[in-house]
Amino acid sequence: MAKVELKGIGKVYDGNVRAVDNANIVVEDKEFLVLVGPSGCGKSTTLRMIAGLEDISEGELLIDGKVVNNVPPKDRDIAMVFQNYALYPHMTVYDNMAFGLKIRKFSKEEIVKRVNEAAKILDIEELLDRKPKALSGGQRQRVAVGRAIVRQPKVFLFDEPLSNLDAKLRVQMRAEISSLHNRLKATMIYVTHDQVEAMTMADKIVVLKDGVIQQIGSPLDLYNKPANKFVAGFIGSPPMNFMQVTATEENGKVFIDEGTFKMEVPGGEYLKSYVGKNLIFGIRPEDISYVPEAIPHKTMNAHVTVVEPLGAEIHVYLYTGKHQFIARVAPDINIAVDQKLNFTVDFSKAVFFDGETELVINK
Amino acid sequence: MFRLNTLQKTVILTILIIWALVNLFPLGVMVVSGFKTTREIFLSPFSFPAHWSFKSYKEAWSVANFSTYFKNSIIVTIVSITATLFIASMAAYVLARFEFPGRRALYLFILAGLVLPVRLAIIPIFLLIRKLGLSNTLVSLYIVYTAGGISFSTFLLTNFFKSIPMDIEDAARIDGASYFRVYWQIHLPLLRPALATVTVFNFIRVWNDFFFPLIFINDNTKKTIPLGIQNFFGEYSIQWDLLFAGLNIAVIPIIIFFIILSKQFIGGLTEGAIK
């Protein structure tokens, strides 16, 4: 079917601006791959290179084992959904969806059949005679997806397709695209800056920053085993907390010293080579828990600055005196602003990063 | 939105009505005079005719060869505008969408045509047309009018092309469209308001031109309306009734054109393309 491989792909603009550097990605057949990263990280450029809308400066792009670097977009057998829909404004919904099929000289019956099928899947059958300007944002997005589906391409490309929709519609369309993926069993490559979309939809996530791939892995891999501080902070909401600490060793036990508190790291032997050096201590908000009493070297004391009750949980913004951090606590605990409370952390879930390279320190 | 009080409205409306009358009065005199005899035009220049007669129209149309001039004018206008639109829109597409060395220089070169008064170059143009063996043909007019319209039309259309979202073009290319198909089936329909503007501009320029036919055309059967009207100015007398009838005939296509194309000016065509 359709396997997409990027081998050392790079993009250089005007001879010196580097947008993408040495990207090596394998998208397996029927896989849902998400490229995620902050704006300007090169994720859209990468997608546009796969689409053939941008020239590839370096490396090789393979679709189904064939190098397609110099194959024009129309011959790559791909379909793309754009952020701003990019519907043809002068054509009806039907014609928008049929355009690609007409160019490819499909028979009239086949075109009618495919368009109606796609319209049925996307629930836009009543809209076929309308022009794009008579549609709402969500409907336009469906038409844009429909235009991709009718072609039955090898690979679907999505360029931030949901970012123009309101929050509720976005959640709904997210689920629809996921179920579409299950139904069509097609290879999909999806670009987004929203890590929630990445986590919820992807089989495999590629995290990009400044044109360089930070990590490739399944959503839970990225969440539990981030390769560096950037990935750790990017994946997850609220984000992982980071604190600058130094490692110390006393009686064979490893401690971290934040300045305002000192905690023992159980099983922290792997940090011994970092004793006396700067470390970044990373802990997710749900791995911090409230304890009523202070225990020496097991808890930290922090000042509550903001309390966000979300119903199912409470996000508590805390300040140690040196670092700001967030804890996720159960909704039944009474917490008020300006309290000084004690918290403990689950060190089995904590991650440490080298203070210099910001790479994770493996256990 | 501005809100006007009654006094402001009255003042503004009065000024506009006076302005409209000032503009419409000569046109009205022209239209009405076409139905009068020459004698009546001089006796009571501003009155309505005693009885409305189409005699001068008939005479102008058949006897004074107006049917031929009219036909020539229409052919020349259609051919030159079509050629201008086609060439200018293709040039604009390339200038707006493709990056290549010398693009800016080429664009400025085309724009330079806006600065040069073409009539100053009439002698070289005349010599060129004669060398090509095209003097006294309608082809000479096609060429000169088409060339004369390209600068302004390309300039205008380039900016319109730039306003069409790139994503629409990308989508079409992924859908399998060639560059020409993108231009023909996606861009041109979206550019209708711009094309209408360019058409109207060129239509007036070409339809009303007296200068180039005067230089290039000798043969009576190849004259256009503006040159043909000159026939009514005799050595000793002017046939005012035929002249006015001829002017009315000349004006009709322009008015029809405006009515048809003014609809196209109403833009909003790209609305709905992107959020």
End-to-end separation of chain A in angstroms reads 39 Å
Major sheet description of chain B: none
Number of contiguous helices of chain A: 8
Strand and helix order of chain B? HHHHHHHHHHHHH
Based on DSSP secondary structure assignment, what is the total number of beta strands of chain A? 20
Name given to the CATH homologous superfamily of chain B = MetI-like
Quaternary status of these chains?
heterodimer
Radius of gyration of chain B from CA coordinates: 23 Å
For the sheet with most strands of chain A, the description reads: 6 strands, mixed
Structural summary, described in words:
The complex is a heterodimer of chains A (363) and B (275). Chain A contains eight helices and 20 strands. Chain A has a six-stranded mixed sheet with strand order 6-7-8-3-9-10, with helices on both faces. In chain A, strands 13-12-11-14-20 form a five-stranded antiparallel sheet. In chain A, strands 15-19-16-17-18 form a five-stranded antiparallel sheet, with no helix packed on it. The longest helix of chain A has 18 residues, at 167-184. Chain A is 23% helix and 34% strand. Chain A is of the alpha+beta class and 363 residues long. The model of chain A has no long low-confidence stretch (mean pLDDT 92). In chain B, helix 3 crosses helix 13 (240-265) and helix 8 (166-174) crosses helix 9 (179-190). Chain B is mainly alpha-helical. Chain B contains 13 helices and no strands. In chain B, 72% of the residues lie in helices and 0% in strands.
